């Protein structure tokens, strides 16, 4: 029996012919029996009927137009000044010697003292100059101390002050001057000093414990505490009276002599000018002379310390010393990330490098793209010429 051979091509072309009456191959409406939705078509017909809606409909919000704002200015209402009786005074704040208006540290001390004093309690500010804004910063009374930066004079004044105004708590800044005075007072009165407080609030005081990653908390405010700088937010509640009280305090007897350290003798972390050598330096005697002549503390990259050309203590970087210098002069240092971490806090960076594309050149504000040897020789010559 003869079988007809199928021609798939012909069959397909017959299906596609509209006149053939055959259904299209992928006509799903026919398959399910349900009319198929056309979302595009629906959206188009909706858009004709409805007013178009903005995606972010700001018309619902109430805004003051510029003209309305001009027409009705917001009344400037000053909160009433809070006054307290002498009997309500609770906290004595002794600030560091200084000049001009209150420093951020002074304000942080006053903000903390206000929290410790409570809403009904008063704060006495002891400061060595007249300041305008102590009331708004939280002081109820102000005592002007005799001007003296000598630790012994400041201690005698603080003793007299405490005797004249025996308040429950004393607060000082955890700074070299404030920390020293706080410790002297604590020793004199036999109080336990709660030093370096970082948080103060309704739940008490918190300070970190040195060398351990734990905090020490204390619910009760102690007789004396020192406050760590830049940890406590400033206050913004009603201003206080800020009335000046005159007391008979001992006058300063000792003069303070300020001794400047020898140029370049400061430790790396404290120095404001560091001259550093990298692997691009070969003449380390010349490098040390340049650093000394410029008055900078000598530093080095890790490669140089590893090779023994500079002591390990001179290493700058993530695994060395992190600097806070005003100026960093990098001689022949590439600027590896670990080194750059150590100079992130430096204000100005000067690079001397033969490679224009070195990361240190990119980091620097001023770069000398040259061999460091003749640059160091020229620097030494110029520095020696300028020296008196
Ligand atoms: C875990 C870890 C921690 C690290 N910690 C530190 C760290 O704390 N501090 C640190 O410094 N490094 C650290 N390093 C090493 C760091 O990654 C780099 O290897 C190192 O900083 C490179 O030192 P360098 O720039 O002096 O040397 P190089 O990378 O060799 O760069 C030398 C530079 O000198 C330039 N140069 C060459 N010849 C001259 C010339 N005649 N005149 C001028 N320029 C020239 C070159 O162009 C180059 O830019 C650490 C690495 C690791 C893995």
Automatic annotation (TrEMBL):
Keyword match Electron transport: yes
Signal peptide: none
Name the record gives this protein: Electron transfer flavoprotein alpha/beta-subunit N-terminal domain-containing protein
Source species of the chain: Aureimonas ureilytica
Swiss-Prot/TrEMBL keywords: Electron transport, Transport
Basic and acidic residues biased stretches: 1-14
InterPro entries named in the record: DHS-like_NAD/FAD-binding_dom (IPR029035), ETF_a/b_N (IPR014730), ETF_a/FixB (IPR001308), ETF_asu_C (IPR014731), Rossmann-like_a/b/a_fold (IPR014729)
Residue intervals of the Electron transfer flavoprotein alpha/beta-subunit N-terminal domain: 91-250
Keyword Metal-binding: no
One annotated GO molecular function: flavin adenine dinucleotide binding
Domain of life: Bacteria
Domain Electron transfer flavoprotein alpha subunit C-terminal: 268-343
Protein family (similarity comment): Belongs to the ETF alpha-subunit/FixB family.
Region Disordered, annotated ranges: 1-47
A GO biological-process term: fatty acid beta-oxidation using acyl-CoA dehydrogenase
Pfam family, one: ETF
SUPFAM superfamilies: Adenine nucleotide alpha hydrolases-like (SSF52402), DHS-like NAD/FAD-binding domain (SSF52467)
């Amino acid at each position: 029996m003869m079988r007809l051979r199928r021609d798939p091509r012909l069959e397909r072309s017959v299906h596609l012919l509209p006149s053939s009456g055959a259904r299209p191959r992928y006509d799903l409406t026919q398959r399910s029996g349900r009319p198929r939705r056309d979302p595009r078509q629906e959206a188009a017909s909706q858009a004709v009927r409805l007013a178009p809606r903005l995606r972010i409909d700001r018309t619902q919000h109430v805004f003051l137009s510029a003209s309305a704002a001009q027409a009705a200015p917001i009344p400037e209402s000053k909160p009433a000044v809070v006054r307290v009786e002498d009997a309500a005074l609770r906290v004595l704040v002794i600030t560091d010697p200084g000049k001009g208006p209150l420093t951020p540290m002074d304000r942080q001390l006053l903000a903390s003292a206000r929290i410790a004093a409570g809403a009904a309690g008063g704060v006495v500010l002891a400061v060595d100059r007249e300041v305008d804004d102590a009331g708004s910063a939280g002081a109820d009374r102000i005592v002007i101390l005799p001007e003296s930066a000598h630790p012994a004079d400041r201690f005698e004044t603080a003793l007299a002050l405490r005797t004249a105004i025996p308040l429950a708590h004393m607060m000082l800044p955890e700074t070299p001057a404030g920390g020293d005075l706080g410790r002297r007072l604590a020793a004199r009165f036999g109080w336990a000093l709660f030093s370096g407080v970082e948080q103060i609030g309704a739940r008490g005081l918190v300070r970190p414990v040195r060398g351990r990653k734990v905090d020490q908390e204390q619910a009760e405010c102690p007789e004396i505490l020192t406050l760590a700088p830049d940890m406590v937010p400033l206050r913004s509640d009603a201003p206080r009276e800020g009335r000046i009280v005159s007391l008979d305090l001992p006058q300063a007897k000792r003069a303070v002599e300020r001794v400047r350290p020898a140029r370049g003798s400061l430790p790396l972390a404290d120095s404001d000018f560091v001259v550093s050598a990298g692997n691009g330096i070969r003449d380390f005697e010349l490098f040390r002379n340049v650093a000394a002549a410029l008055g900078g503390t000598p530093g080095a990259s890790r490669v140089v310390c590893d090779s023994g050309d500079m002591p390990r203590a001179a290493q700058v970087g993530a695994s060395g010393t992190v600097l806070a210098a005003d100026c960093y002069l990098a001689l022949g240092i590439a600027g590896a990330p670990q080194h750059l971490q150590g100079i992130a806090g430096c204000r100005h960076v000067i690079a001397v490098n033969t490679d224009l594309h070195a990361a240190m050149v990119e980091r620097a504000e001023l770069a000398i793209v040259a061999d460091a040897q003749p640059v160091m020789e020229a620097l030494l010559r110029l520095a020696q010429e300028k020296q008196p």
